[in-house]
Design brief:
The protein is α/β, with parallel strands linked by helices. It has 12 helices and 12 strands.
């Protein structure tokens, strides 16, 4: 049995299995115990390390700050991050680097960062920064050293490497798609946890509509948790209260991420509202689950592989060539049209 087999049986990523088997932090106790139990039952034993080769192996660290709002403790199981980590691991391997994982609870940020600064085990750090403020990133850059790339966020005022999504473009593409399909009464389902990415998406979507003389009616705006793929009672309650006032539903909803969009699909189905016949739904991120829900989700594709490659390459360039000039890269998006959106009914 291979690590890939254990990952499949445990329902986690290969990186999570690696953390469990090596005894490193970054995964929950429950996940670690499940992985170790499967490994024991299957008789799996990791390959012995070749001392000379391994001590010379160069390594990078993938650093995550977890919280209850966006990046969960089991972040490696969240579809977007799972795909991103896969591409980062592949790029590191192709460049002759191993990838180690570290997670920090935001509630103990000061203590954990101090320990990280004292215990520099890798050559450089890729920091997942989508739930961090400019002040936090600036402090981390100062304390963790120059070999740092922040992924999935960007603040122009900081002299730090950033690799981010062009959130404005993606949401603008979604708004344009809905307008071109004839939608004029459009709703917006936002995250109830606010981060920079969502603010940029909101700006891009609104600009697409406003350029065409449209706006979003405030009563057509809803807010829900951004990390649930199931039907949400909170959203169901908001929609039921809205419909109880005999208001017609918008003909389409834009959702700030695919988690919200998939949750909206399931919530609307629970309420007997057909997608896309009665309401179109558009998401953002193009996670793998967007292709297996019914109907398949129209969404904004994020080039996760390209982002991973750029982050790894910028970090290695900083390490190996001593390049001091920092870069800010925003990776463009494209719209993927599937079955969850169509022109509104005319009857």
């Amino acid at each position: 049995m291979k690590m890939e087999d254990i990952a499949r049986l445990a329902g986690v990523s290969k990186s999570a299995v690696s953390l469990a088997l090596s005894g490193k932090s970054g995964i929950s106790t429950e996940t670690r115990e499940r992985v170790l139990e499967i490994a024991r039952e299957s008789g799996y034993s990791p390959k012995p390390r070749a001392a000379a080769a391994d001590t010379a192996l160069k390594s990078l660290s993938f650093l995550v700050f977890t919280n209850s709002g966006i990046v969960l403790e089991s972040y490696y199981q969240q579809p977007f991050f799972r795909e991103l980590i896969h591409f980062i691991e592949d790029r590191c391997r192709s460049k002759g680097y191993s990838l180690l994982f570290s997670s920090v609870d935001r509630e103990h940020l000061e203590r954990e960062v101090r320990l990280l600064a004292e215990d520099r085990q890798t050559d450089g750090i890729i920091l997942l920064g989508n739930n961090l403020t400019p002040e936090e990133i600036g402090d981390l850059s100062h304390r963790l050293g120059p070999h740092l790339v922040v992924l999935d966020n960007c603040f122009d005022k900081l002299p730090v490497h950033f690799v981010a999504i062009n959130n404005f473009m993606g949401a603008y593409q979604a708004g344009t798609h809905l307008w071109e399909n004839g939608h004029r009464e459009i709703g917006y389902i936002a995250s109830n946890v606010r981060i920079q990415n969502f603010e940029e998406r909101k700006t891009g979507f609104l600009e697409a509509l406003q350029e065409r003389g449209l706006d979003i009616n405030p009563v057509h705006t809803f807010a829900v948790a951004p990390t649930m793929l199931s039907s949400q009672e909170d959203l169901k309650g908001q929609l039921q209260a809205y419909m109880a006032e005999n208001r017609p539903l918008p003909t389409a909803f834009f959702c700030e991420c695919d988690y919200i969009a998939i949750s909206a699909l399931k919530t609307l189905n629970d309420l007997g509202i057909r997608v896309p016949e009665q309401v179109s739904v558009v998401g953002f991120d193009n996670i793998s689950e967007s292709r297996i829900v019914s109907p398949e989700l129209t969404t904004v594709h994020v080039e996760k592989q390209r982002m991973a490659q750029l982050a790894v390459d910028l970090l290695i360039e900083s390490i190996e060539q001593g390049v001091e000039a920092t870069s800010k890269v925003r990776v463009d998006t494209r719209l993927v049209v599937r079955q969850s959106s169509q022109a509104p009914r005319t009857d």
